[in-house]
Design brief:
mainly beta; ten-stranded antiparallel sheet; 57% strand; globular
């Protein structure tokens, strides 16, 4: 089976992202900027370490991680979380984020396909779905 994880992806669709960010406690201005941004996500892998770079009009962030190893992350909206990434199926990556300092826990599942990436994130009962096209 092909490894579809590495690649460059441009967001094309987003659903319920404002409510998701509001439930996380993200402020109004940051939510509005986040809703207007259609980021490019680049994922690369070197041996057993992944790099995920997210570029938008508002901010560029980068995180490095190994599957199954917890790491500190500052999310795009500025929250500090303890994250763990794992593969739950071929080409499906689970991103578990444990809130710190009273922050809420959330999860994102990334499903990598030949031509697209589907990201479904959840905090409490609020779910957001974001679709990306693979860039050549």
């Amino acid at each position: 089976m092909a490894d579809y994880v590495p690649g460059r992806y441009q967001m094309t669709e987003t659903e319920n992202f404002d409510e998701f960010m509001a439930r996380l406690g993200v402020g109004f201005i940051t939510r509005k900027l986040g809703n207007q941004s259609y980021p490019v996500v680049t994922i690369s892998k070197e041996v057993d370490e992944y790099t995920m770079k997210t570029e938008s009009l508002v901010k560029t962030s980068e995180m490095k991680f190994k599957l199954g190893e917890q790491f500190e992350e500052i999310t795009g909206d500025g929250r500090k979380v303890l994250s763990t990434m794992s593969m739950t199926a071929p080409n499906t990556m689970l991103h578990q984020m444990l809130g710190t300092d009273g922050g809420k826990d959330s999860i994102c599942t990334r499903e990598f396909m030949a031509e697209k990436l589907k990201v479904v994130c959840q905090v409490e009962e609020v779910v957001t779905t974001r679709m990306y096209e693979r860039k050549k």
